[in-house]
Amino acid sequence: MSRKASPRPVRVKQKRLAPDDRRKEFVAKATEFFAEEGFGGGTRDLARRLGVTQPLLYRYFPSKDDLIKEVYRTVYLEPLNNGWEKLLADRSRPIRDRLQEFYSAYTEAIFTRKWLRIYLYSGLKGLDINRWYVGVVRDKILTRIIRECRHEAGLSVQSKPTAAELETAWVFHGGIFYYGIRKYIYESVVLEDKEQMISDALDVYLAGFGRVFGTAVRTQRAPVKAVG
Amino acid sequence: MSRKASPRPVRVKQKRLAPDDRRKEFVAKATEFFAEEGFGGGTRDLARRLGVTQPLLYRYFPSKDDLIKEVYRTVYLEPLNNGWEKLLADRSRPIRDRLQEFYSAYTEAIFTRKWLRIYLYSGLKGLDINRWYVGVVRDKILTRIIRECRHEAGLSVQSKPTAAELETAWVFHGGIFYYGIRKYIYESVVLEDKEQMISDALDVYLAGFGRVFGTAVRTQRAPVKAVG
DNA sequence: ATAATTAGTGATCAAGCGATAAACAATTCG
DNA sequence: CGAATTGTTTATCGCTTGATCACTAATTAT
What is the pLDDT of residues B67-120, one digit of tens each? Predict the structure, then answer.
């Protein structure tokens, strides 16, 4: 039972931080932590990563669940960008360019291991915030895309998207989303050029939209990069 | 400290089952249980659902982890059907029919809350079996689909799929997969007619494949159900 | 400088976890 | 029948968990 002689208790110089900074640091690191470990991860492990003791967490958050809720809030709101709706609706530019730029920026925002994992975990829990987010994608993004596609195809843009239009847009959107899952969750080998993937997916979707829902949508295809 | 008088201990008639039946019942119910609760769910809660006591689980499985592994095995292998490769390769039928029938059957097998949730949970854990499954989809399904599309488009079917072809097929496949996620995980309102969703997704994919990778793939489109 | 305030720590509690061992009871065998 | 076997339960162990409280020490106010 010989204890190593330590002249003074080897405490690593207790540093006090302003409450606001601490809070932000806690939420940020907790996001990374829960993204990796799942929300079953222990508060002691989390505290160790933060370089503080476990009870300190409870000075800033009444319970683990409150901390988790704050993680959700920041993760879900972080990537939302108000410029996107305007970008999609800007008819002075070709629809293909707008869609390419939008999905380029959107995936840049959400295609991180952290975001995707938190998103999946919260989805499996069936949380309200997840349902809310899915509604936002449908109403702010897909509905807008369908309207622009209709306009491009010379169709009426007054009526709400039909169920079939919406579903087809979801399949397209989900296909792109799944690229992120494959890359950052499954860690599969994917086509490294994300822009090319979006471009190809867009070609397929735009070509298909015309054939399925109306007269052909005329858009110039992006040049196909060396294939084969 | 008055204990309710119970003439005999109210035990619900201990029933003995043959070990093999018990095992199967345990695995089946454990699958449902873990699908809902996640693999953090407790063995006591699981046992309660099974109508047995918790230690009994340990007569059939050395540890909780072993039980979980068996859950994975059955869930992943359950839906795999050897007839699918032949179905996809049967060139006596139009490619569109084959793809429609394949995805109809495939989604019938995996679009259950149970299967999808176990799949997502195991994916988040980064398990080997998940990587293996993704490889199977790529090599047995998508590669085959691409070959058939090439054949239909009059292209060479010798060489391996290009990265771009594979990626486009993944986007298509992932889009359909995401329909299941939306319906059974997010519990969103989706287009109820799954066959129609597959049909539309196929129209888009097949029309797009021709435009993106070669001369147009000529296939008769499925009749569009009342739209609008 | 001293007092008041508050960020941070050490010790600990009650509850829940996976797992084990011994007792019990339903079945099977001689 | 009685004995042996084995499926099932009761009781419990050691550990981890989220959470609390009294205390220490760094900062701020007087």
Answer: 999 999 999 999 998 799 999 999 999 999 999 999 999 999 999 999 999 999
Contacts of B165 in chain A (CB under 8 A): 227
CB atoms within 10 A of CB B93: 10
Spatial neighbors of A17 by CB under 8 A, at least 6 apart, are A25
Q: Which residue is nearest to nucleotide C21 (CA to C1')?
A: B55
* pLDDT tens sequence across A148-168: 999 999 999 999 999 999 999
The integer distance in angstroms from the CA atom of A18 to the C1' atom of D28 is 13
Tell me if chain A has a CB within 8 Å of the CB of B165. yes
Residue type for position B180? G
* HSE-up (13 A, CA, CB side) for residue B200: 31
Q: Could you count the other beta carbons within 10 Å of the beta carbon of residue B145?
A: 23
Which residues of chain B have a CB within 8 Å of the CB of A181?
A: 123, 174
pTM above 0.85, yes or no: yes
